[in-house]
Design goal:
The protein is α+β, with helices and mostly antiparallel strands. It has 16 helices and 34 strands. InterPro entries: 6-hairpin_glycosidase_sf (IPR008928), 6hp_glycosidase-like_sf (IPR012341), GDE_N_bis (IPR032856), MGH1-like_GH (IPR054491).
């Protein structure tokens, strides 16, 4: 099996290494030091007297800080070793590594400590595909090595500095040291990452502030983040630890886009360490009861980047909400449509959903009024640009045929939208869940227009349009002989009749009539979709089903969180509890950060969740999924200035206490026990 990568992370800046702390190019994995979609270090290898080092143990202190305990040479040298090494690594705007060499013998000893250094400045979207000419400048007088890449005005630079005098060459730094008996030697290496040259964006912390101060500030920030979130007290063993771990993962995945002050969630490690509109919105919805500041920052950022013109290269349209924002070389030069890109059919209605949900929880009417124009533009987009065939459905079809996303929905792999026999519908496609989002956006937009924008006529119009969409949708997407909704419609109105997890999103949006909800719920927890570890993305018995396929059979925690919330919306508490228990079992069995997805094998077959190589960890909307499931189990719902609690806790969870839930009511506590009856939240003075 491939060796697990170890990481330190702070927003979009992260470093992946092997168990020894070394970084060497791997064509299959993103190994190295990355920031804003560029690899600033591709080679970072420590040697003692010419020998590679090997790991004894590791102390993962926080998400941004770790320590490696090492010895030189092969495993046979471990017993009674005369020398050992500690690598203390941390990351913020810069990368910092303190190297400590300890002499355990009763005699002084001399060593040659060599750190090999290099960078290929690869864009993470195309690792190893492009050869770059890198200029290396060795500066022993200033104890630094500068690595620089420039293509026209695109400049990336890595500067490595030592706090001690050192021999510097174009391939790294060499320390020739003498350590007293039972003594130690140490040096600090600072790696600064610069974008745009001397006048560009410098991502390093000033050395005068010292890395200790940076780490101290980050620890305080993490402690403050954890303190502001509600406190969970749970009888179920391990649940509190999973909760705190999810909060810490979410803290790690916050970053500030350039020229923006607030921190928004990136999608996740390792392949999507940038702003993704869909991920940020869903994560904000999932965490509303816990970390509402994510929603505020996400709404303002996406409103700032909202589409304002027609641009086929990046699929931009007036009112459309961003799909993703990246800073890599390939996007900067148009080699790929991945810098500023709008190819997403669902982010725009979801933006309105998030704005309304945020106000319900926070009571922040000022933001609703501030974002009135972006919200109305988003609602207008649904009908003006989203309806590509004039049939009243939001559809998608890429206009950049070279690099545009083929499937512009959450199931975005090229083969993910198919019928039961494996045939893919023609474009433009209308997937079922996007129609639910559009319906929900119109209903929520009507509330905002009536209560905050002073426009009751517009509110009435949106409600009429939502009612017409619901009627039309239930006529065209419903498959009466199968009693579920088609995955998609082709441009001629023919359904792609696959049974998929998307139908659970329809319950979440409220577009399903009450008399059809029972059938949908039974499919979601039936044997074809539910395998014991959660709801699969694609049901068994269909030609394209593959338990290893990310959107054709795998289980996604984020998908399941929305499904469970939808089931509770329609009163299917037992089914929601079944799904919640399965996801918590999966997360607890695996331990650590919640993976993006797992294989959809039957639980009775595998006995252990099967992880997939393509699945990232940590992922913002996977960590957020545990929080949303917790909120769903407790039945948290804002109603005016009160927080209502209506628990449906799975058997075996015992008592759950969630203390200091923030909202327009101040802070409240929620109490529940498995198989509990409804409870009301108790306001609390903090």
């Amino acid at each position: 099996m491939r060796q697990e990568l170890l990481h330190v992370i702070a927003g979009s800046v992260f470093a992946n290494s092997d168990a020894q702390g070394d970084m060497e190019v791997d064509p299959q994995q993103p190994v190295g030091l990355f920031a804003f979609d560029t690899r600033f270090l591709s080679h970072w290898v420590l040697r003692i007297d010419g020998e590679r080092i090997n790991a004894l143990s590791r102390d993962d202190m926080t998400y941004f800080e770790t320590r490696f305990f090492l010895v030189p040479g092969a495993a046979s040298h471990y017993v009674d070793a005369d020398v050992s090494i500690i690598r203390h690594r941390s990351i913020h705007d810069c990368f910092h590594e303190k190297i400590t060499v300890l002499n355990h013998s009763a005699q002084p000893a001399e060593f040659t400590v060599r750190m090999e250094m290099g960078s290929d400045f690869s864009d993470i979207a195309e690792l190893g595909l492009r050869q770059r000419t890198v200029e290396a400048t060795a500066d022993s007088a200033n104890n630094q090595l500068v690595l620089r890449y420039q293509r026209d005005r695109f400049v990336r630079q890595t500067t490595v500095r030592s706090t001690l005098p050192v021999e510097v060459d174009e391939g790294g730094m060499t320390f020739r040291i003498r350590i007293d008996a039972e003594g130690q030697w140490e040096t600090d290496l600072h790696v600064a990452m610069t974008m745009g040259g001397e006048d560009g964006q410098d991502m390093r912390a000033h050395l005068k502030s010292h890395q200790w101060a940076v780490r101290t500030g980050m620890r305080e920030d993490l402690a403050d983040w954890m303190d502001r979130a509600p406190q969970l007290v749970a009888e179920r063993r391990g649940l509190e630890e999973m909760y705190r771990g999810s909060l810490a993962d979410l803290a790690a995945l916050r970053y500030r886009p350039l020229s923006y002050d607030d921190r928004v969630p990136v999608a996740g490690l390792p392949w999507t360490m940038w702003l993704c509109g869909r991920h940020s919105i869903i994560t904000s919805l999932q965490t509303m009861a816990f970390t509402p500041e994510l929603a505020h920052a996400t709404l303002r950022m996406l409103a700032l980047m909202q589409g304002g013109q027609l641009d086929d290269d990046i699929d931009e349209e007036p009112g459309k909400i961003l799909a993703h924002l990246r800073y890599g070389e390939s996007g900067a030069f148009g080699d790929r449509a991945n810098a500023l890109y709008y190819g997403s059919a669902d982010t725009t209605p979801l933006f309105v959903v998030l704005l309304d949900e945020y106000e319900r929880w926070s009571g922040d009417a000022d933001l609703v009024r501030e974002l009135r124009h972006p919200a109305r533009m988003a609602l207008d987009w649904i009908d003006e640009y989203g309806d590509l065939t004039g049939d009243g459905y939001v559809r998608y079809q890429r206009r950049n045929e070279r690099y545009g996303a083929i499937n512009q929905v959450w199931k975005d792999s090229p083969e993910s939208i198919t019928d039961a026999n494996g045939r893919q519908p023609a474009f433009p496609r209308a997937t079922c869940e996007v129609q639910g989002y559009a319906y929900d956006a119109k209903m929520r937009g009507a509330r905002l227009a009536r209560e905050f924008w002073g426009d009751p006529a517009y509110a009435d119009r949106l409600e009429r349009e939502a009612a017409a969409l619901k009627e039309r949708f239930n006529r065209d997407f419903w498959l009466p002989h199968r009693e579920y909704y088609a995955l998609a419609l082709d441009p001629y109105g023919e359904p792609a009749d696959a049974l998929s997890s998307n139908i659970g999103h329809l319950l979440w949006s409220g577009i399903v009539p009450d008399d059809r909800a029972q059938a949908v719920a039974e499919h979601l927890v039936g044997s074809r979709l539910f395998g014991g570890w959660g709801v699969r993305t694609f049901a068994t018995g269909q030609r394209s089903y593959n338990p290893m396929g990310s959107h054709l059979g795998a289980v996604w925690p984020a998908d399941n969180a929305l499904i469970a919330a939808g089931l509770r919306r329609y009163g299917f508490d037992t089914q929601a509890a079944t799904i919640a228990a399965a996801i918590f079992d999966m997360a607890q069995t695996l331990g650590g950060a919640v993976p993006e997805m797992i294989a959809g094998h039957e639980r009775r077959l595998t006995k252990y969740p099967v992880q997939l190589p393509a699945a990232g960890r940590p992922q913002a909307w996977s960590s957020g999924a545990l929080l949303m499931l917790l909120s769903t189990m407790l039945g948290l719902r804002p109603t005016g200035d009160n927080l209502l609690v209506n628990p449906a806790v799975p058997a075996g969870f015992g008592r759950l206490d969630l203390l200091d839930i923030p909202g327009r009511w101040g802070h409240s506590d929620a109490y529940a026990r498995d198989r509990s009856t409804a409870h009301r939240a108790r306001p609390r003075e903090r």
